Amino acid sequence: MRKLITLLAALSLGGIAAAQAQTELKFGHVGNPGSLFEASANEFAERANAKLEEQGLDYRVAVFGSSQLGTDEELMQKLRLGTVDFALPSTVMSSTVDAFGVFEMPYLVKDREHMKRIEQEIFWPTLAPLAEEQGYKILALWENGFRHITTSVRPIETPEDLQGIKLRVPSGKWRVKMFQAYKANPTPMAFSEVFTALQTGVIDGQENPFAQIWSAKFQEVQDYLSLTGHVYTPAYITAGKQKFESLPPEVQQVLEETAKETQAFVYETAAALENDLLTKLKEGGIQVNEADKDAFITASQPIYDEFSSEVENGKELIDKAMSLGSAS
Description:
This protein is α/β, with parallel strands linked by helices. It has helices at residues 2-21, 36-54, 72-81, 93-96, 112-133, 173-181, 194-200, 210-215, 241-245, 249-283, 293-299, 301-310, 314-323, and strands at residues 23-28, 59-64, 86-87, 136-146, 148-151, 166-169, 185-188, 205-208, 224-227, 232-240, 287-290. The chain is built from 13 helices and eleven strands. Strand 6, helix 6 (173-181) and strand 7 (185-188) form a beta-alpha-beta unit.
């Protein structure tokens, strides 16, 4: 009996040691429960963990949403330090690598099929290597989505309606410049702070995809939702290059392959959420209106001109991205 107890104890301790030996890969993002970011990150983690376990690799992905591990800016720093393993930046990438500002150009991306062509022809050959030069490894291109404006002041039908409105925007100079061109008062602010700022009147409005608006409950503190669709923002599942390349090659392969194959789930989920959440937002009482997109496109020309002259190869990036939209 004593031998049996000793054996069981040894097996138990061995199991504990094996569990403790498993390496946790932290995935931080700013999305709230119910957001596209949450669904995307969780799907990736579930798929990756199943493959890692199947191959006997002692690693697992753990997801921390709702800015638990920091703001977008903080997460970018932590990726380079190696204290966070993955993040899901979007607009903030244009503050890290100038050329990523091409995705901040208003009405550039027409739809997801257009985005897929941009990914193959521009993103992987040109933009991803620029991110690597800054210490980041992008595993796959996902989505944040088409952005729309909410306010507590008035419906936004033309750029003139934004005159003087204090509008929260994410960190990224081109989003700030865009709304300055539209005569708004853009205010960069961490996503986690936006609800309270709207509720207390520190800002009048914000702009985000439906999934972020709904999951953050902005409809509870905003009266108007204007369907501007002014920017389509990709999201990038990103790691610190040095930390990622220190992982065993077979672990790297599982993570990279899984990140890329998860894109189909992300796009499908995003498309479904667009229809579903707009209906829910309307039912929730927020007043919805169409915007004059032609007026916004006309008012956007100075942003294109400035990007073309300020960013190296900026005009070539814009022209090539636009040419890829002709088949959409």
